[in-house]
Design brief:
Number of domains: 4
Helix content: 40-55%
Distance between the termini: 78 Å
Number of helices: 20
Strand order of the largest sheet: 3-4-7
CATH class of the largest domain: Alpha Beta
CATH topology of the largest domain: Rossmann fold
Largest sheet: 3 strands, antiparallel
Length: 487
RNA sequence: GGCCCCGUCGUCUAGCGGCCUAGGACUCUGGCUUCUCAAGCCAGCUACGAGGGUUCGAAUCCCUUCGGGGCUACCA
């Protein structure tokens, strides 16, 4: 199938909500496959279900893909030779093909009402036979049709599924066969004239010259229906796209990932401070591996290493802990400038800074000491807050730890030493404090520095103490310690 | 129920008949380091769903079984 042709892969979500982890994993594989093969990545919006798809969700899907860096060659905003790329703008195309199928006898009008169809299914379930359309309207006579029309019945367009089987080779699962006995005649066009997924997806994949369909395994059993449409379109088997059905991403409870068993919206991950590259790296490892022990890969490396042959056929469980670990790795690998760029929005959103040049400069100086201690960007405000607060106050739960006499002694001595210090850098601060508190007073470092940490940063947890004090500045340190003494 | 897909440590995976007393990563536990928190380093725990074959030899091939999942819409 499609051998020799230039690869074209499509990602075609139906935006009935925010794109979720599963969608993104599919998009990522589509993208990686296209880039690996030097092919085209096509992005199409399947918005034929107008009751569930909204313009907001469509825009959100576009933004999400952009944010992740999954750039497309054909699709919304960038256009392309086979547009439009929103199915809602291609209705006339589907109508034309549906009519052709009707004319050819591949499809027929079905006048059964939803209620009648449901009754049939109910009976089938009761009789323990496979539920599905019973072919009631397959061979209606002209009189029967006239009678239905006279009753004012609306018709759907239904595809005739001939006896036999459909066999295709899935690039991930191998040869798969479906007996048409279990693939009932299916609806192509609703009674209101709007197309269904089964029609639109098949028509578009052919018209847009898609060579590879990598999609979720939930669509595996709909493949024979797509192939049936190709046949009716007159497409030769060697021109069918190659199918590859990706395994699911499951939640912790082994059910398809959903809001109930894990956070699924990419928007949520973005707000939490996950890096797009971390999300992509982690998702790439769900159902795929480079084949060796490599795990940390850049987007560039992913496109070099990705092949469908290495994709699994078994589902994978989503593990937030592993994502966090990878995110931490990616954060630590960031250059200072990139780290700054990623961090600033979190600090401004938290109200820690407003964005002045002085603030940004201080943040930049402080970032190196927190880079290896955060896993997500949203941890940054809490760690750097002490540098920017206008009204400094010691955390309520830490106050009691520095009001005892021993702590007061530590703070008093520290104050004296720091006031006398003429060179204000972390090495000098540390040398002075160690000499006075550890060597002279004989205190344990842990005890001595905890008291100072609370007094200067307001918390029992902070970036390294001496670096923090350097950044804070001599006068601020002195005034905070003085204030702590009168608590 | 029927059809289809899937089954290696808790999780993601390596493995494609001998290199496997099953390797790596995350998690977890213990230790080292240490000014807190991290990071880093070291160690440990834990897996081929089960049962039959085939073979000198099976995690790897075949069959059965059990288990999980998907589909079964005028959703996608």
């Amino acid at each position: 199938m499609t051998a020799g042709k230039k690869v074209k892969v499509r990602f075609a979500p139906s935006p009935t909500g925010d794109l979720h982890v599963g969608n993104i994993r599919t998009a990522l594989f589509d993208w990686a496959f296209a880039r690996h093969t030097g092919g085209t990545f096509l992005f199409r919006i399947e918005d034929t279900d107008t009751t569930r798809v909204t313009p907001e969700y469509i825009q959100a899907a576009i933004d999400t893909l952009k944010w992740l860096g999954l750039n497309w060659d054909e699709g919304p905003e960038v256009g392309g030779p086979n547009g439009p790329y929103l199915q809602s703008q291609r209705l006339d195309i589907y109508a034309t093909w549906a009519q052709k199928f009707l004319d050819q006898g591949d499809a027929y009008h079905c006048y059964c009402s939803p209620e009648e169809l449901e009754a049939v299914r109910e009976a089938q379930r009761a009789a323990n036979v496979a539920p599905g359309y019973n072919g009631h309207c397959r061979d209606l006579t002209a009189d029967q049709i006239a009678a239905y029309k006279a009753q004012g019945r609306e018709a759907v367009v239904r595809m005739r599924m001939p006896d036999g089987t459909t066999t295709f080779t899935d690039a991930i699962r191998g040869e798969v066969t479906f007996d048409h006995k279990f693939v009932p005649d299916f609806v192509l066009v609703r009674a209101d004239g709007s197309p269904l997924y089964t029609l639109a997806v098949a028509v578009d994949d052919i018209l847009m010259e898609v060579t590879h369909v990598l999609r979720g395994e939930d669509l595996l059993s709909s493949t024979p229906r797509q192939i049936r449409v190709y046949q009716a379109m007159g497409v030769k088997p060697e021109d069918y796209p190659t199918f590859a059905h990706l395994p699911f991403v499951m939640g912790q409870d082994n059910a398809k990932l959903s809001k109930r068993n894990g956070e699924v919206s990419i928007a949520w991950y973005r707000e939490q401070g996950y890096l797009p590259e971390a999300i992509c790296n982690y998702l790439a490892l769900l159902g795929w591996s480079p084949g060796d022990d490599r795990e940390n890969v850049t987007m560039q490396e992913l496109t070099e290493l990705f092949t469908v042959e290495k994709v699994h056929s078994s589902p994978a469980r989503f593990d937030m802990k592993k994502l966090e670990a990878i995110n931490g790795d990616k954060i630590r690998a960031l250059t200072l400038d990139d780290f700054l760029t990623w961090t600033l929005p979190f600090l401004t959103k938290a109200g820690i800074i407003t964005g002045t040049d002085a603030e940004v400069a201080l943040v930049k100086k402080a970032l190196p000491i927190i880079q290896e201690r955060i896993v997500k960007l949203d941890e940054t405000p809490a760690l750097l807050k002490f540098l920017f607060v206008k009204e400094f106050a010691v955390d309520a739960d830490a106050v009691s730890k520095i009001t005892d006499d021993a702590s007061k002694d530590i703070l008093k001595r520290s104050l004296k030493e720091l006031e006398a210090l003429t060179t204000w850098d972390h090495a000098s601060i540390e040398a002075t404090l160690r000499a006075a508190l550890i060597e002279d007073m004989g205190l344990k470092p842990r005890i001595a520095f905890t008291a100072l940490r609370i007094a200067t940063t307001g918390s029992t947890i902070s970036p390294p103490l001496f670096e923090s004090m350097e950044l804070l500045g001599q006068s601020a340190c002195i005034s905070r310690i003085s204030a702590a003494l009168s608590l």
